[in-house]
Amino acid sequence: MSPLHLLPTLTRGLFGLQLSVSPPAPVVGPAVGPANPELAAEATVAPWVPEHGAEAHGAEAHGADADPREGRDQMRRAARATIAGGALVLLGMVGTTTGLALFIAHGRQLERLREDNGGRLPPGNDKRQAAIRLHGAVIPTVAVASTLALAGLVTALVAGRRFRRLRDERGSGKVAFAPVPTRHGFGITAGVRF
């Protein structure tokens, strides 16, 4: 194990030690709150009024009273769901891969024990019992990890499709990447459409 593997752990430990030793920041001024809570409770939030006419905000697609904040919130929720689905896929794939590797390793260990004992597994051997127990426990683990990966994939696909649909309805946020030659090789340019 190289010292580079310990660098993130050491950094987190030193940073946490520094935070635990330092005194808390002083509180300056009174707590922020409404000057008169009764008036604040009676205050209303102004409704959304489209600027430059309803046509400028795509009123024909969303209705004249459409609030763009709702569209942004829907896009953010869809983007978060897509990222969460992708994380579930990665977690499930790591679990499946690890489980399959353990399944193969314990199967090989049982085969080695069988070969060492003349084609039969020794009945009272602790290594044999541990290998059989772990070999059997890996199967449900792989099944759960595979199911998690599948659920994450479905979530990522559905939420990603919804995000793209909402983004296309809004007509913004398109980014195009393209390789370009430079003096020292190639670079990447990004074009953004607002």
Concise description?
The protein is mainly alpha-helical. The chain is 63% helix and 9% strand.
Describe the structure.
- The chain is mainly α and 194 residues long.
- The chain is 63% helix and 9% strand.
- It has a two-stranded antiparallel ribbon with strand order 1-2.
- The model has no long low-confidence stretch (mean pLDDT 76).
> How would you describe the shape?
elongated
Alpha-beta content class: mainly alpha
Helical residue percent? 55-70%
Number of strands: 2
The CA-CA distance between the termini, in Å, is 48 Å
Spatially, the strands of the biggest sheet line up as 1-2
Biggest sheet architecture: 2 strands, antiparallel
As residue ranges, the low-confidence spans are none
Instruction: Provide the β-strand percentage band.
Output: 5-15%
Give the H and E element order. HHHHHEE
Query: What does the radius of gyration come to?
Result: 29 Å
**How many H/I helices?**
5
Q: What is the average per-residue confidence, as pLDDT, rounded to a whole number?
A: 76
What is the strand and helix layout of this fold?
Blueprint: H1 3-21, H2 37-42, H3 59-62, H4 68-116, H5 126-170, E1 174-182, E2 185-193
Give structural attributes.
194 residues, mainly alpha, 5 helices, 2 strands
